[in-house]
What does this fold into?
Amino acid sequence: MKVLLDMIFNHVAPDHPWVKERELWEGAGYRHWFHPHSGRDASTSIQNWQDQNQLETRELNGLPDLAQENPHVYDFLLDVAKYWIVESNCDGFRLDAVKHIPPAFWARICRDLHAFAGPDFLLLGEVFAGETPYVAGYQDLGFNALFDIPLYYTLNRVFAQGGSLQLLSRQITFNRQDYHGLLLSPVIDNHDVARFSYWAADHPREKMAAALTFVLTQHGLPMLYYGNEVALEGAAPVNEQTGAGQDYLNRLPMPWGRVTGADRALVAHTRRLLDLRAHLAALRSSHLIEIYQDYGIYAYLKYQEREAVLVVISNSAAVESRKIPLPRGLFSARTRFADLLSSQRLATAGDSLDLRLQPWASHLFRIKGRWHPRALAGMAWACRFTPRLSADMAWVSFRYQGPARSVAVAGDFNGWSAAADTLAAAGPDSWLLRLPLKRGRYRYKLVIDGSRWMADPSAAASELDPYGDRNSLLTVP
It folds into this structure.
């Protein structure tokens, strides 16, 4: 076992003696160690989260913000880090709030920490942002790895909220384009966000099992947050009715009784995936070739030299049958597919594989018998998308009539993101979007020009929202 310590270089607690004790703040001059600090209101906190200067020089929700450009602050932070390396003999640091500190600091301290502790001392950075190019902008500063926060949003939209599996392929494409050699750490949820199960609502264990299968068959440093293995419940960080903070509900103690009780099947699934990842180089490798993708089914090949595993994941709540096309010249009539998660065995049917997939199914088919690894060399990694809906989905149209520069839809089906689903211009002051959605009941709003949130005038029904306005209601039968 290796141990990482969580290091926070951006801020201190509001009641830190340097800040609260006047003789230290004024007399000893510690006020010069901080960016402007009100201590009374939010005037020195970040107001515009799109302004990089504010992100780096203003306070994160009122936490006194250290001025890392002060050489005394830098020397202190480096000494603190060295102290804990010596004192704990830890194997690395999880570096908090990376985007809230100037890149020049990170380049310097990563260099100094590696010089002190060695190049294998793991520096794992947390750049909490959903845009891949933004996170990738920190990859050349000396970190060994970065959390894949854009993938976190994709995983939640796909597996918890029932979005199209095409989004996974799109995120892999972004990563291949924007990163060059840096390790990524995919994460399903963590202590700063609502847990996966909160977004999943119904069938959280089955949905978590599918998400774990995807994460633990990706290259990098998969990160499991305690409770993932039992689909631990959580809540929105802010209560929808009262506005009160309830972040603690995503940090409740581990319910150990569930490990051998109600959630033992999910625990066993997690253990099996971890064991297979540890013993099969193919699952850990960066070599991935897509075989098939539609709105509800995703199949890809992971391989390393002569070892290969075909991963098939279903995001459908219904039983699905698929004839998965196989790349020509790769497999032979003697190739066999043995599922490492069950006792299922399959053989090729000419140039395809016939599958009957249970709801939220996961399969890891190890390739056995005669096949041709050399054929992989010239094969494109991405496959064509097949526009086939799973049995639990339907097309839904969103329309808006009125003057606007941009129109988006935000709701339960996309994490209330104002950027995820935008309507296209369909004529003068006319906007249209078609989305494949799972059957169910959804709340949503239209977002006009990126800032004006409103109920959909054409919606058949609505309800009062927590802020005195109204949410539109949509039922997909």
The chain has three domains: 4-280, 288-376, 393-476. Residues 288-376 form a domain with the Immunoglobulin-like fold (CATH 2.60.40.1180). The CA atoms of residues 399 and 458 lie 8 Å apart. Residues 71-88 form the longest helix (18 residues).
